[in-house]
Amino acid sequence: MNYDIIGDIHGHADELEKLLQKLGYNLLNGIYEHSEQRKVLFLGDYIDRGPKIRETLHIVKNMCDTGNAEAIMGNHEFNAVCFHTTDKKNGGYYRKHTFTEINQHFETLKQFKDFSEEWKDLFLPWFKKLPLFIEKDNFRAVHACWDDKHINWLKNNFKGKLTNDFLANFNKNKSIENVVIEETLKGKEINLSNGHTFFDKDGVERKECRVKWWQPIEKRVKNSDILMMCPLEYGNEFIEDGKGFHYTSNKTVFFGHYWLKGNPVVENNKAICLDYSVAKKGHLVAFKSEYISAINKEEGFIY
Questions:
Q1: Could you tell me the pTM of the whole model?
Q2: Which residues contact 277 (CB under 8 A, 6 or more apart)?
Q3: If you average pLDDT over residues 81-103, what whole number do you get?
């Protein structure tokens, strides 16, 4: 089976349909399928930000329900489950409802204003059952970071559904559930030293930088080589405490999440990001799985 692996969509249904058609998928009874029995593998983050979130969810879920696609969970789907699930023990919800969280989730809330039952009864239960990773014979897929230690823990301890008990344990700071989910769905981060901070894409001031764990170890010299959006002064400093976590498997892993810019390119043929910021006027990107065995810098990408 050949797969078309598609990165973060964030409610951009028009761009998704154009990409599917470019890949050779056609509508049949309102559902996209491929005449050559190819499948799509979606890498998560279907909601928030974009203008057609509901339409995106119907496209993705319908393809999954009919066997024309598979989908994994993104951090935005996980956040949505936490945002809408009540904490019956402590009160409130498993995700805060402050301005930051509401602002990030606002487009989804607005677009489902008149479809609340559909959101509650169809899509939220589906989110809860989405796998946190997928492994095929010749590749792997995860939303933000594949760490064998975390994946093995999930294989042994995650029962295939986000239950209230799991979410309660996740909400305990530095619990194993918290660490595994944060790093698998949101990536690894390091704390900046000497009071350095920066503002992320949403204008939130942060003291932690995302780690470019896919960066080949031989290319890691300065902090800016392995950290995203770190302050210029800090980025120009040489790495002092080792080279940090890096992916070592020979099986290629595909992931999204990181809002890369420009045209897609392979930085590491064993760890390939397919999020090229469609929600920030970038590209919605796919990779054709048959190119995995002979990856170069450009072949295999469709956008």
A1: 0.94
A2: 259, 260, 261, 283
A3: 95
